[in-house]
Design goal:
Length: 429
C-alpha cells in the first residue's frame, strides 16, 4: 500500500459497522467511550481489549492486544501482542466476530455503531423495579436511625484538612531533573486519626494517577499535560531498566479549619503498590507503560491501592474502623454513611461540605473472599474535592471512619467508592 491519505478502514460485524480515518486510533473494549464497544459475557473480562493503530510509516494499520487474560483471534489463529492487519482479516474479540476491510477514497464522517449482544430480557428490569420499591419502602420506614449528632460533626471537622498539590518534581535517584508548578492545583481532603495518622487518597498526593480512564489508554502517548507525560516516561524507563531509578514527587499544602497550613511531600506518605496495574502501551518498536489504580475488568478491588498516610505529631478525633468493624457493618446490610470533604469549586476550609448516603451493595458483593474486604459502594453526590475525606459511620454512642473516599465510577456516575479503612491498618503491619 503506497500510503493511507486516501484510504480508510472499517470494522464490521452483523450488528454494526465502525468506519475510521487513516490516522485514527481505534479502541476496542467493554466500557462507554470505546470506539467499538463489546458487551462482556463473564465477570472478569478486561475493559479494554485491543487498539488498532496506524503504522509508523503510514502505510497500513496494526492491532495491539491490551488484554492479558483473553485471546484475540486473527483468521482463527490466536495473536500474540502485535499483528499487522490485511484487507479482509477476520478478528474475533470474545463474543464478537468482526471483519477488517481497507477502503479506497477519503472516508466520510466516522460512523460508530456499537457491536453488542441483544439487551437483557424484560423480566430482569421488572425484578429490578420490584427490588427498588422494596428498598425505598424500607428506607422510608428506617429513616431517622443512625444519625450523627451536631456535636459529633463538630468533633469530626476539627480533624479535617483541605489538600492542594502545588508542584511536582521529576527525580532520578535523589537528583531533581525537572519541576512543574500547577496554575490550577488539584485539591482534595485529608483527615487526622486518633493514632496520629494523616490519611488521604493516594491520587490526592499523586494526581497523575487518576487523570486517565481505562478507555483512554490509547491517547496517553499524545497527552500534552506535563504530569501525564512524565508519569508515562517514569514507568516506561523503570520497566525497561528493571529498577525504580526515576520517580515523581509532589509538594502539597494542607490547611485545617483554623487556616493553619503546613507542607508535606508525597515521599512523606506510605502507600501500597500491591494493587497497581502496569498497562502495556505502544508496540514492540515503541514500548510504553502506564501505572494505574483504576478499576479494570470489573474488579473494583484494584482501587484498594488508593490510600496513603503520613505520620503526625499530634492525634486527631477520628478513629479508624477495623476489618471486623467493617464486616459487622456489611452484615447489617443497611448503614448510614456521612462524607466530609472540600468540593472542587471551594477554596480552603470555607469549602467544607457534608453529604450522606447509605451503603449500596449487599455484604456478599462487597466482602469477596474471607481474607479481603473490597471497596465500599455508595452515592452521596460526591465531587472530586471529596477525594481523600472520611466516610463516617455512627458506632454505638460514637463514630468511626469506615472508608477513605476514592472515586466516582466513570461508567455509572451515580455510584462512588471508598477504600475500607482496614486497608490502612493492614498497611501499618
Amino acid at each position: 500500500m503506497a500510503g493511507t491519505m486516501d484510504k480508510h478502514y472499517t470494522v464490521s460485524n452483523r450488528n454494526g459497522i465502525y468506519t475510521a480515518g487513516s490516522d485514527c486510533v481505534t479502541v476496542v473494549g467493554q466500557v462507554a467511550g470505546c470506539d467499538i464497544q463489546i458487551v462482556n459475557h463473564t465477570e472478569y473480562e478486561d475493559e479494554i481489549l485491543a487498539k488498532i493503530i496506524p503504522n509508523r510509516e503510514k502505510d497500513g494499520w496494526h492491532i495491539v492486544k491490551v488484554t492479558r487474560h483473553w485471546p484475540i483471534l486473527i483468521n482463527g489463529v490466536e495473536m500474540n501482542r502485535v499483528h499487522y492487519l490485511a484487507d479482509g482479516d477476520v478478528i474475533d474479540f470474545l463474543n464478537a466476530h468482526c471483519v477488517f476491510n481497507i477502503k479506497d477514497g477519503r472516508q466520510a464522517e466516522p460512523t460508530i455503531v456499537h457491536i453488542h449482544k441483544n439487551s437483557k430480557k424484560l423480566w430482569v428490569l421488572f425484578a429490578a423495579i420490584m427490588i427498588l420499591c422494596v428498598t425505598v419502602g424500607w428506607r422510608i420506614y428506617s429513616s431517622g436511625r443512625y444519625i450523627l449528632a451536631d456535636e459529633q460533626i463538630a468533633e469530626i471537622e476539627t480533624s479535617l484538612f483541605s489538600t492542594r498539590v502545588d508542584s511536582i518534581q521529576l527525580l532520578r535517584g535523589d537528583s531533581v531533573i525537572e519541576s512543574y508548578a500547577y496554575a490550577s492545583s488539584p485539591i482534595g481532603t485529608a483527615f487526622l486519626t486518633t493514632d496520629s495518622l494523616i490519611v488521604t487518597a493516594r491520587h490526592c498526593i499523586q494526581p497523575w494517577l487518576n487523570k486517565v480512564l481505562p478507555y483512554e489508554y490509547a491517547s496517553i502517548p499524545g497527552n500534552t499535560e506535563w504530569p501525564i507525560k512524565k508519569a508515562l516516561f517514569v514507568e516506561t524507563e523503570n520497566q525497561l531498566s528493571g529498577n525504580d531509578e526515576y520517580r515523581l514527587r509532589a509538594w502539597l499544602t494542607l490547611t485545617d479549619e483554623n487556616d493553619y497550613s503546613f507542607t508535606l511531600t508525597s515521599d512523606d506518605f506510605r502507600i501500597n503498590r500491591d494493587y497497581d496495574d502496569i498497562v502495556e502501551l505502544g508496540t514492540y518498536d515503541t514500548p510504553q507503560y502506564w501505572r494505574s489504580i483504576s478499576h479494570r475488568y470489573h474488579r473494583t478491588d484494584m482501587m484498594l491501592g488508593d490510600i496513603a498516610y503520613a505520620k503526625s505529631d499530634r492525634p486527631g478525633r477520628i478513629a479508624l474502623a477495623s476489618e471486623e468493624d467493617i464486616r459487622k457493618m456489611l452484615r447489617q446490610r443497611r448503614t448510614k454513611l456521612y462524607f466530609f470533604g472540600h468540593p472542587e469549586s471551594g477554596i480552603g476550609n470555607n469549602s467544607l461540605d457534608i453529604r450522606a448516603d447509605e451503603l449500596r451493595m449487599q455484604g456478599k458483593e462487597l466482602e469477596g473472599t474471607r481474607e479481603d474486604v473490597f471497596m465500599l459502594a455508595h452515592d452521596g453526590d460526591l465531587t472530586p474535592g471529596f477525594s481523600g475525606g472520611p466516610a463516617i459511620m455512627r458506632s454505638g454512642s460514637g463514630f468511626k471512619a469506615v472508608g477513605v473516599i476514592s472515586v466516582t465510577d466513570e461508567r455509572n456516575g451515580h455510584l462512588s467508592y471508598s477504600v475500607p479503612t482496614s486497608e490502612i491498618i493492614k498497611l501499618q503491619r
